[in-house]
Design goal:
alpha+beta; 26% helix
Length: 231
């Protein structure tokens, strides 16, 4: 008996991570437990931390590590339930960070499990989905991605949607330099495969080479797996 599922192929993109916009970081996780990965899929975190005086670069790392631990914690939960439970824990940590005056946190967290995707953000974060030759601004498309509100603070809502085999995703922190070229990225995403798209990003030249980018490029392939029947 064969099992068919979508497998994400992700490329982490981190260019000039200590630029003037603040510290940038990207994380992509699978569980060490194969069963957890099969059920809950993969987890991605894109972050930008800014502070007027203190070095808070570790904050994204801490949020990402907590997100991984909590998301894969309970195999009895569905991906949607695990994502919501993870965000509640993440908000407890974020609340402590906001005691630092002058701190700005921009973090996007999303999980892909099978053909389902769950997304949440704090501050600035964007995601484009290339489908049928078009680029869709995911966080502003409630027709394809339904929004479920959780709380009034921190990671405040979750978008849930479906992924198709030929889809491509570019999820990123919209730094000033990236926003200035956002139209270009949006137009090129349906046309370029991963290596070409990333090469175009890396080839961008700015005065004093200050271009910075943190993001994840993901495409999807249909995989057939032989299911092992229990004895």
């Amino acid at each position: 008996m064969e099992k068919i599922y979508l497998r994400p192929n992700a490329q982490e993109i981190l260019i000039n991570p200590n630029a003037s916009d603040g510290a940038l970081d990207v994380f992509a996780y699978r569980s060490e437990n194969d069963e957890a990965t099969r059920k809950l899929g993969t987890l991605y975190v894109v972050g930008n931390i800014q502070h007027k005086t203190d070095d808070m670069a570790y904050a994204t790392n801490l949020i990402a590590a907590l997100a991984k631990r909590e998301y894969y914690h309970d195999l009895n939960l569905t991906p949607k339930e695990a994502f919501a439970a993870m965000l509640r824990k993440a908000n407890e940590v974020v609340e402590e960070f906001f005691k630092h005056e002058g701190l700005t946190i921009n973090v996007g967290i999303f999980a892909v499990a099978g053909d389902k995707i769950s997304i949440s953000k704090l501050g600035k974060f964007k995601m484009y989905l290339a489908r049928s030759g078009k680029s869709i601004d995911v966080l502003n498309n409630v027709e394809l991605f339904g929004k479920e509100h959780l709380t009034e603070t921190q990671f405040s809502s979750v978008l849930n949607g479906s992924i198709q085999e030929a889809d491509r995703i570019f999820a990123f922190y919209p730094s000033r330099a990236v926003v200035a070229r956002e139209k270009l990225f949006r137009e090129q995403l349906p046309k370029l495969v991963a290596a070409e798209f990333i090469e175009k990003l890396k080839g961008i030249k700015t005065p004093k080479n200050t271009f910075a980018c943190a993001g994840v490029y993901i495409d999807f392939e249909k995989v057939k797996e032989t299911a092992v029947e229990p004895n």
